[in-house]
Amino acid sequence: LPTLKCAFQICILIAILGNNICMYVVLQIALLSQSFRRKPSVWAFSPASQWWDSIVPGFTNAQWVENFRMSEETLGFLCNKLRPAMEREDTTFRESVPLKKRVAIALWKLATGSEYRSIGHLFGVSVTTVCRCVQDFCAAAETLLVPEQIRLPDEGRFRDMAAHMENRWGLPHCVGAIDGSHIPIIAPQQYHTDYFNRKGWHSLILQAVVDGKGKFWNVFAGLPGSLHDARVLRLSTLWELASRGNLFPPHTRNIGGVTAGYYILGDSAYPLQKWLLKPYHDTGRLTAEQHMFNHKFSRARVVVENAFGRLKGRWRCLLKRNDCDTQLVKSMVLTCCALHNLCEEHGELYEASWDAPETAECEPVAAAAQGVEEQGRDVRNALIHQSSHVQSRPFT
Fold this sequence. Notes:
By secondary structure, this protein is an alpha/beta fold. The chain folds into three domains: about 1-35; about 60-150, Cyclin A, domain 1; about 155-320 and about 355-385, no CATH class. Helices cover about 50% and strands about 10% of the residues. Helix 1 (about 1-15) runs antiparallel to helix 2 (about 20-35) and helix 8 (about 125-150) packs across helix 13. Its cofactor is a divalent metal cation.
């Protein structure tokens, strides 16, 4: 700018000497405009963020749990876990959104299912920022949190899980229960009929196995809602592991005269296997012992239904029709399952008011014509034999 000013002054002097009054006036105006030129500035829209900056820091522990489904301490733990993948640096043009705020934005989306625009107004950020926070959070969680929170148990944990199930429900060597749940979505543009389930709406399927305490130890998500539960099972890694004999450690136990390995509980939609038991199909001819077994079986299997209820009650984005693309919805589902385990592990409070409203559930359709040879009848019969000799503990 000083060099330009000197050049103007030289031109003015030449103009005066040459009696060129018009040129002198023009140059004076140009010089004046340079003197008052506005300094360059970086453009950035900065909406108000008073709620996050001023009100949230004063939250009690109960308010943190109510709004973000976890205490501030657990949120801090989560930030540290995801820091390598989520933290951003300031640039020349603008300051980055702090990591804690980015995680809080994503948690708010998962906990409420609110629209990006309303979340942006609340946190004082743009819609684009909210969208990126959710995407980055779920991607980071899939990489760093899901493998840690949801993994195949080791031999010691399987032993503990079996002991818990037997002590609570009187089912020896049982290590959990399996079920499927539909996650509502907006109809995709491509192959939308594949996602239309028998309940009458579009969905993705979440298949999960939980232990006796309601924590997920195997999840499989993302297949279209029109698929049968048995078909989803056969397409999952769980089936592949079980088929190869790699699902459970080779630890057997004599049950009613039958050598049995570990097994999980499923409803009538699943094929009967040595590692996957289901109740007796009621044809009207069941014995009293078979009725009693089915009753005990259903009491124990309710643990997976309760886990789904707490999952969707805590992370209510899984209850509403999600308008994100199917890949992001799948990522959100897996992330919510990992967050469920994290909250249960850290002893986070679950409010009864979060429970999802009860909806009419369709009866499971028995697995048929799935090309799977049923096995495990001897184990199921042995459990009846054992139950007739051993008094199980009452349900709690």
